[in-house]
Design goal:
InterPro entries: Nitroreductase (IPR029479), Nitroreductase-like (IPR000415), Nitroreductase/BluB (IPR050627). This protein is α+β, with helices and mostly antiparallel strands and about 260 residues long. Helix content is about 35%, strand content about 25%. The strands form two sheets. Strands 5, 6, 7, 8 and 9 form a five-stranded antiparallel β-sheet that branches. Strands 1-2-4-3 form a four-stranded antiparallel β-sheet, covered by helices on one side.
């Protein structure tokens, strides 16, 4: 495959621009060249390193999915070049291969994904749906499902679910690479939930503190380093999308 066409470039740019980040800071830059898409970390952004890399991982997940939507295999190289400390990943478009049904559904979910802060509806989320969401992340990181009881009296018995489902995403190590992979896994799970018609929100801020991470690990018996909590449920209403930066804010020159 030669250079990206204008339409292909727009597909990649739009997908990356819709990735989640705290306060929609979008701490990444994208450069398209030949049949490669390069993702860089913007360390000048006002985000802590953990959240910055989680966001870059989410952008990478969208980028890989967009290349697959374009009907190409993907080959991804991750950070590790000492000469390019801000380089996060390179995604290379390979031979033609149609996207799977799951990949098409997740790609279609990219513009519909929302950070849901409202109460969940009483409708049940099935074990099968939770399993699909967990599997979307577990190919990259570890996932543990926990159930958090609602406050006593918050809902009468038999009136819908009485517990909130939360997935804890964790890795064996706690390096920059693992932070990035946790972001990839988080976005894949979030898109799967969106494709299933579910709502989700993410909790990361308390996990910035090492003592809190250690406490979560001990309290929930998590066999690794926790990076994010993904809350899942049925939405009670639709919420609008958050404003996004222009592509000029994160696309680097270099397209050929």
């Amino acid at each position: 495959m030669g250079s990206w066409t204008r339409d292909e470039a727009r597909t990649l740019i739009d997908a990356v621009g819709l990735a989640p980040s705290v306060h929609n800071i979008q701490p990444w830059s994208l450069q398209l060249s030949d049949h490669h898409a390069l993702l860089f970390e913007r360390r000048d952004s006002a985000l802590p390193g953990r959240d910055r890399l989680l966001a870059c991982g989410a952008a990478l997940a969208n980028l890989e999915l967009a290349v697959r939507f374009l009907g190409r295999r993907t080959e991804t190289s991750l950070l590790g070049d000492p000469l390019l400390p801000d380089w996060i990943a390179a995604v290379t478009a390979g031979d033609p291969e149609p996207p799977s049904r799951v990949e098409r559904a997740r790609f279609a979910a990219i513009p519909r994904r929302r950070s849901y802060r409202l109460p969940f509806a009483p409708n049940s989320v099935s074990d099968e749906e939770i399993q699909l969401i967990a599997e979307a992340a577990s190919s990259v990181v570890g996932v543990k499902r926990i159930s958090v009881p609602r406050r006593p009296g918050s809902r009468a018995a038999g009136d819908g679910i009485d517990r909130e489902t939360v997935l804890v995403l964790y890795t064996e190590d706690d390096s920059r690479r693992e932070h990035l992979l946790a972001g990839v896994a988080l976005q894949r799970a979030w898109l799967e939930a969106t494709a299933l018609g579910l709502a989700a929100s993410v909790v990361t801020q308390p996990l910035h503190v090492a003592e809190v991470r250690d406490g979560v690990t001990a309290w929930l018996d998590v066999p690794g380093h926790p990076h994010a909590l993904l809350r899942l449920g049925m939405p009670i209403s639709l919420i609008p999308g958050a404003p996004r930066k222009s592509a000029h804010a994160f696309v680097l020159e270099g397209r050929s």
